[in-house]
Design brief:
Structural class: mainly beta
Order of helices and strands: EEEEEEEEEEE
Number of strands: 11
Radius of gyration: 13 Å
Helix content: under 10%
Distance between the termini: 34 Å
Shape: globular
Number of helices: 0
Length: 124
């Protein structure tokens, strides 16, 4: 199970930190991704932390602003979001997969396990 938290309402330029805690399974054997979905839009990839290593992959629009990290002791991943923009407004989800291959890490359909989502609202 995945439990995301940390969403809220902030102003443009502010920062926010999301957390996603996992229970069950061997955490380090899972690739954990962050996705977001704005109203009326498709779910889109934000970042992912690959299993067994420290490799993090980011979507281009968040590079340099968002930082993802994982703590395999606490079974938790984090998404530090800086310089937030109104277009970052969305429900943010964490997702996990133990079998995903590298070429599919940005495809939300390749993740089997999902958290409930946490809403981030950035006002201008």
């Amino acid at each position: 199970q995945l439990q995301a938290s940390g969403g809220g309402v902030v102003q443009a330029g502010d920062s926010l930190s999301l957390s996603c805690r996992a229970s069950g399974g061997t955490f380090r054997s899972y690739t954990i991704g962050w996705f977001r979905q704005a109203p009326g839009k498709e779910r889109e990839f934000v970042a992912t932390a690959r299993r067994y290593n420290t490799h993090i992959v980011y979507e281009d629009s968040v590079k340099g602003r968002f930082t993802m990290s994982r703590d395999n002791v606490k079974n938790t991943v984090y998404l530090q979001m800086n310089s937030l923009r109104p277009e970052d407004t969305a429900v943010y989800y964490c997702a996990a997969s133990s079998t995903i291959i590298f070429s599919e890490i940005s495809n939300h359909l390749s993740y089997a396990h999902w958290g409930q989502g946490t809403l981030v609202t950035v006002s201008s």
